[in-house]
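step: validate -> pass
step: tokenize input -> pass
step: predict -> running
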Amino acid sequence: MSLDENLSRVLARHEELSSLMSSATMPSAEDFVKLSREYSELTPVVEGITKLREVESELDDLRSMMDDPASDSEMREMAAAEHRVLQAKLPKLARDVQMLLVPKDEADSKNAILEVRAGTGGDEAALFAADLFRMYQRYAENRRWTVEIMSMNEIGIGGLKEVIASVSGKDVFARLKFESGVHRVQRVPTTESGGRIHTSAATVAVMPEAEEVDVQIEDKDLRIDVFRASGPGGQSVNTTDSAVRITHIPTGIMVSQQDEKSQHKNKAKGMRVLRARIYERQRQKLDDERAANRRSQVGSGDRSERIRTYNFPDRRVTDHRIGLTLHQLDSILNGDLDVVIDPLITDDQAQKLAEIT
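step: predict -> pass
step: emit ->
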């Protein structure tokens, strides 16, 4: 479909939505909310298209005036001068409209569930997982987001086997979603006397935090087991069965939560994580269907995909998806992630824009 056909389709849909909302046979309250949401999302696009077409029409009129032999030379010169001014504005107007047409991820404005897990590499992988989580905490602090730790499994030397956290704030998922995947570190462990560089890894998963309207979970589809919470080495940390394991039977997705002393609080936290995982699976299924023959390299969210390497000897960070290499390891680990995330977002938008033009 050409760009002009895309623009005409948007205008027609906007007009159709307006008619549906003002129809004598009023839609249901639920349908009206959906229609009005789509209408408001399309309105700035329509305004951009209208402005673009007005300028194109004005350029046609000026061109006719310039080519009209009946016009005097002064009028033709004025028309030519105005034509040059408008012609210079046209590329930006067209680009703005194209960017408005780029498909929006409905989850971009949502909060996120962030999961960091140690991968291959033993204690060194757990230490790296802790480094990554601190990086995300500092990045969140820089952007005035809130981080709530929901579950954490630490090892004695300051490493993390696993941590699950909720990150809330403005456009959290939009900026963190490209972090999903395998992060690899190359460095000399503190326990290595020979100075040899070791390679280890940690896995990051970022999922939009789903609301109840996003994912419908019926009680009959849940199996909830309660057990006594345990600490490091299997020691009991609670005298009551407050830990909760929730299994979503249709998908087999399972969540365990034991950080709180209250069974009720553990269940509530567990349901938040469960809902996010189910929502992410649904989104992934839709993405797979839409891109059966072409998987976008950035944002595929494939957790088996090695996405980034942190090389300590060279103070280098490389994002393999877009071939970006930065010698800013210290500042990035200190939360200056925008230098990596901004190019990923730009690349993602460019790919989406190429699909509609």
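step: describe -> Residues 293-303 have pLDDT under 50 and may be disordered.
step: cleanup -> pass
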